[in-house]
Structures are given as structure tokens and as C-alpha cells.
Amino acid sequence: xxxxxxNILTVLILLNNMKKDPEIHEEAIVRCIxxxxxxxxxxIFSFYKxxxxxxxxxxxxxxxxxxxxxxxxxxxxxxxxxxxRWQKGDNATLQIALFKIIATPDEHSRLTANKTxxxxxxxxxxxxxxxxx
Length: 133
Known about the structure:
Layout: H1 3-19, H2 22-36, H3 41-47, H4 53-58, H5 65-88, H6 92-102, H7 105-111
Helix pairs in contact: 2-5
């Protein structure tokens, strides 16, 4: 076999092994999440083309602490930025939404127009005087 063919086979074997190496993909996916401000696992597949969904799940990357933490970090940072803008802004609707988020249960119930409390018990009464034909 010629050197050229052996080199091609070696490269193909390395590429095939790379596809199955979760650490290589994990690092690239975390960088992709951070660079594109992604929030969900589903969003990853629109930006990261290194592997498909099937391989992603076969490699258990959906359970990777680093991947999940990167997604969660983006959510937290984005929520914080939104809340900060709502607080500084003039939009009363957004300020009420912020208050509902940070309010105690008592403050929240006072803010809502209708409050429903349940005792935890249900009383069933028979229906009388009804005729079924």
C-alpha cells in the first residue's frame, strides 16, 4: 500500500475517533454556547455543526455539567440584564413584572387583583331533583 493511501486511512481513522470523543465536542460546544449566547440544548444544533443530534445524545453531552452550566450561566446573565433594564426603565408594566418576581408571597398576593385560597378539602354534594331520560 502506498504512503499516500496509508496517510488518508490514518486521517479517516482519526476523524472517526474524533467524532466519538465527547471531550473534544464538549469544549467546542461550550465555546459555541458562550459565543452565541445560547439558552437551550436545542439551540446548540443551529450553531454547532461538529456532530448531529443523535451523536450528541449518544455521547451523553446533554448530561455534561460543563454544557449545562454554560447554558445556565447565559440564562442567569440575560435575566439579570433584563431585570436591571426593567428597574431603570420607565415602563410600568415591566416594573410590575419585576416586582412580582422579587416580591414576597404576601406582597405578590396584594398586587394581584384576585386571590384564591384553598383549604385543601373538597366537599362533594349529591345532585337531587335531576331526572335523566
